[in-house]
Amino acid sequence: MAGSELQRLVEVMDRLRSPGGCPWDAEQTHESLVKYLLEESYEFIDSVDAKDREGMREELGDVLLQVYFHSRIAEDHPTDPFSIEDVARAIADKLIRRHPHVFEGLEVSGTDEIIDNWEEIKAKEKGRTSALDGVALAQPALPLVEKLLYRAEKYKVPVALKKYESDQPATNESVGEALASIIAWARDNEIDPENALRLYGRQIAEQIKATESR
């Protein structure tokens, strides 16, 4: 049943994008749809936070639509087309390559080694030599900075960063409170906290780049 419904979605998307289908759908591009992919992803996160099972099912469908929509648009590319089958094949092959402990019988000590293996395999596949390779700079500032710090630690690149000091132990509540107070401080001083953190993230990226070039 799952396969037949997935194929049905392929056929629906093809009908919408083909002559005689929907003019709006036919006009869309990868660029015009990007905002919808973000919106649908955030709406799914909201449904997870609310433990709304019906909402999760619906929002996952909306996210899936974006994958199929982009894949159908990609079929029309004049020189480098690909389909949803190509997308599915690529991710299935990637999962097999990145999980040798499942598909090749590699023995691992635990999840930390699994993550290390994933990163090592990924780096080899992508030919990555820099801590900055593959970091999506367009992502929101908070996950961007977190990713940059994670990569710097992983690649053993030192980053000069003022350490936050607090008498409270670090918990979800205390960290959330500290971040909220910093955001309020920024707003009181008419500073955009997202932009401020993004600018600092770029400074971290420049530190990493400078260190790696030595």
TrEMBL record:
InterPro entries: MazG-like_dom, NTP-PPase_MazG-like_N, NTP_PyrPHydrolase_MazG
Molecular function via GO: nucleoside triphosphate diphosphatase activity
Annotated NTP pyrophosphohydrolase MazG-like domain residues: 28-103
Pfam family, one: MazG
Superkingdom of the source species: Bacteria
Record GO biological process: dATP catabolic process; dGTP catabolic process; dTTP catabolic process; dUTP catabolic process; response to stress; TTP catabolic process; UTP catabolic process
NCBIfam families documented for this protein: mazG
Name of this protein: XTP/dITP diphosphohydrolase
Organism the protein comes from: Candidatus Planktophila lacus
Species classification: Bacteria, Bacillati, Actinomycetota, Actinomycetes, Candidatus Nanopelagicales
